[in-house]
Amino acid sequence: MSDPLLDAAANVPTEPVTELFGPSAELVREVAYALEKDRPEVVLDIINPLHPADVADVVEQLPADLREPLMEVLDAETAGDMLAEVNEGIRDDLLRAMPAEQVAEAVSTLDSDDQVYVLEDLSEKRQKAILNELDAPDALSLADSLSYPDDSAGRIMQRDLVAVPAFWTVGQVIDFLRDADELPETFYQLFVIDADFKPIGGVLLDRLLRAKRPTRVDDVMMEEPIVIPADTDQEEVGLLFKQYDLVTAAVVDHTGRLVGCITVDDMVEIVQDEVEEDVLRLAGVGEEEVSDSVMDITRSRFIWLLVNLGTAIMASGVIALFADTIQQVVALAILMPIVASMGGNAGTQTLTIAVRALATHELTAANAMRIVTREVLVGGLNGILFAVLIGGIAGWWFADPALGSVIALAMVINMIVAGLSGILVPMGLNRLNIDPAVSSSVFVTTVTDVVGFFAFLGLAGLIML
Predict the structure, then answer these.
(1) Contacts by 405-409 with C-beta closer than 8 Å and gap 24+?
(2) Which residues of 193-213 are buried (b: 16+ CB within 10 A; e: fewer)?
(3) Does any domain span residue 281?
(4) Final residue of a domain: which of 249, 264, 279?
(5) Mapping DSSP to helix (H, G, I), strand (E, B) and coil, where does residue 428 land?
(6) pLDDT in tens, 188-201
(7) Both 12 and 132 in a single domain?
(8) CATH code (residue 363)
(9) How many domains does the chain have?
């Protein structure tokens, strides 16, 4: 018996099928309903017109128990494109559930860089099972790419490229491009190589097409191309693209031979991922995804909350040293959090700028002293301004000028320390080859809490008692 709702979904286009970014909520509900009613033809009628990124959004928004049934409906090409777009947690769950031959069939439709992206987080055993289902040349090429370090140029490069010798003419190159059976789906530049397959230059397509047919390639090529070793970190690659306005860059192995290329469309996604990763790490939530389970999220957050508990106990230990002082001047307990809070916020501001500057190589050994001095001066000036403000408020509130003086002095001290620690902590961690985005905030807030409490309560003991 036909279902009128499913028939309507199959025959009448949903308007709009997508929002500005991603599928509409109504479309996702229609796909879920069709899957529940076991109507694969309706699912395909809804899914087929969508962009792969929108298909990935549909998968992410579906209940977990409907994702595998959807994968059984999709053809290999659609499944492959979707796996390259969907978030990592869901993708890895799907790959673990899919038979190795089904994964191989889907992966074989992708570009080489997307193939690596889809398989790189799987276990070595699972990767081998999938590689065994691929054609030998594709399997060897993919295995070689997976052998490079995580987050390296070798992992994100595309092996499909066009390379020509320098002695060819423009006419020969054009004829070659027209007659070649297999070319990259999209490319912007031709790589010029020597007899050892090492890159010696490059020719952008617009420059090639403007040249006369008899012109030799070495007369129109750009010499001294930007060449990226395959083991270069992807963050460094992103900086190179930004620094030199690159569209495409050659990737070479340890012998200098051309093994692949990286294009700007891939770098946009890489840079976005790097920024997102740093933001999440600054907040102490790692690489958490919306689709992660309750237990996974709890486990990842617990570690950082445990570290914060330890630093909070340390700050409480400082307060305990001045228990008698607080008992004699109760107003100290009321005002105490202000100094620590202001210092923590100021330190976080400096820390955020410092982490970004280190990531983009704007903060280096050459300008470190100038930047440190600047942040100390900024902290001192802000400290003075807020000292006048909070000192006046506290003195008027408790009718005690001495108390106003104490909190004013403590504010200046802690704001200077906040600026200093906010810049020195990430620099120190970076010098030790520790990602400053991961743990800087814990150290900085600990320093500002401890110094803030110690300065405020210590000055109170000296001046007021």
Answers:
(1) 405/463, 406/456, 406/459, 406/460, 406/463, 406/464, 407/335, 407/338, 407/339, 407/456, 409/455, 409/459
(2) beeeeebbbbbbeeebeebee
(3) no
(4) 264
(5) helix
(6) 899 999 999 999 99
(7) yes
(8) 1.10.357.20
(9) 3
- Residue 273 — very low, low, confident or very high, per pLDDT cuts 50/70/90? confident
Going along 121-254, which residue ranges are E strands?
A: 163-165, 189-193, 199-204, 222-223, 227-229, 248-252
What is the token pair recorded at 210? Answer: 């403007």
Same domain, 120 and 40: yes
Q: Please report where in the chains the tokens 């889809």 appear, as a residue.
A: 118
Is this prediction's pTM over 0.85? no
| Tokens encoding 108 | 């074989």
Query: Apex CA 250: angle with CA 245 and CA 253, to 5°?
Result: 140
By residue count, the chain amounts to: 465
Instruction: Give the torsion through C-alpha atoms of 74, 77, 80, 83, to 10 deg.
Output: -50
Indicate if the pLDDT at residue 170 is higher than 50. Answer: yes
The closest alpha carbon to 249, from 257, 17, 240, 80, belongs to: 240
Q: How many CA atoms lie within 13 A of 101 on its CB side?
A: 0
DSSP string, 82-104: HHTTS-HHHHHHHHHHS-HHHHH
- Whether 180 contacts 159, CB under 8 Å: no
CA 158 – CA 342 distance, rounded (Å): 48
pLDDT in tens, 120-163: 989 999 999 999 999 998 899 999 999 999 889 999 999 999 99
The 3-state DSSP class for residue 142 equals helix
> How is residue 169 annotated by DSSP?
B
Q: In what order do the strands lie in the sheet with 248-252?
A: 227-229, 248-252, 258-263
Question: Which residues span the domain enclosing 191?
Answer: 163-264
